[in-house]
Amino acid sequence: SQVGENAFQCRLCGKQFSLQRLLNRHLKCHSTLKRFLCRYCGKGFNDTFDLKRHTRTHTGVRPYKCSDCGKAFTQRCSLESHSKKVHRRVLAYAHKERREKLHVCEECGHTAATAEEHLSHCRLHQQAAATPALPYR
């Protein structure tokens, strides 16, 4: 339901959001059905975004690197916050604003500028997994 001029409120918990799409995403957290499971610990999530963010706590993948000091982060919003607080530089992007997309390998943290390069890299992991280990002698 709409609250005030630009706020949308969850009917289940009362939390408020500035945009309908944010409320829609939030509503998934109330669902007991968790379709996406972490392969490391089995924790369930309602969408792939949350699963990917969680998976990085296990893999240590930190694809968002500060161009000023080199510190790396698991989420773009953490990099944006760091840049603002530490370097006094605003990096924030508006929703759907055009920006350079970073393709990240969730296995090893490799980053690629294009989808093609990313897929080519991911195939290396698939090939390695499909190759049987040599017997120990």
Low-confidence stretches at least 5 residues in length (pLDDT < 50)? none
Count of distinct strands: 9
What is the general shape?
A: globular
Class of secondary structure makeup: alpha+beta
Number of helices: 4
Largest beta sheet, briefly?
A: 3 strands, antiparallel
In whole angstroms, the N-to-C terminal distance is 68 Å
CATH topology of the largest domain: Double Stranded RNA Binding Domain
Strand content: 5-15%
CATH class category of the largest domain: Alpha Beta
Instruction: Quote the average pLDDT.
Output: 83
Widest sheet, order of strands:
1-2-3
- Based on CA atoms alone, the radius of gyration comes out at 19 Å
**Run of helices and strands:** EEEHEEHEEHEEH
Second CATH tier, the architecture of the largest domain: 2-Layer Sandwich
Give the helix level as a range of percent.
Answer: 25-40%
Taken together, the total number of domains comes to 4
Structure report:
The chain is α+β, with helices and mostly antiparallel strands. The chain has four domains: 1-30; 34-60; 61-96, 2-Layer Sandwich (Double Stranded RNA Binding Domain); 100-130. The chain has helices at 20-27, 48-59, 76-87, 115-130; strands spanning 2-3, 7-9, 16-17, 36-37, 44-45, 64-65, 72-73, 103-104, 111-112. The strands form four sheets. It has a three-stranded antiparallel β-sheet. It has a two-stranded antiparallel sheet with strand order 4-5. The protein has a two-stranded antiparallel sheet with strand order 6-7. The longest helix is centred in the C-terminal third of the chain and has 16 residues, at 115-130. The radius of gyration is 19 Å and the shape is globular. It starts with a strand and ends in a 7-residue tail after the last helix.
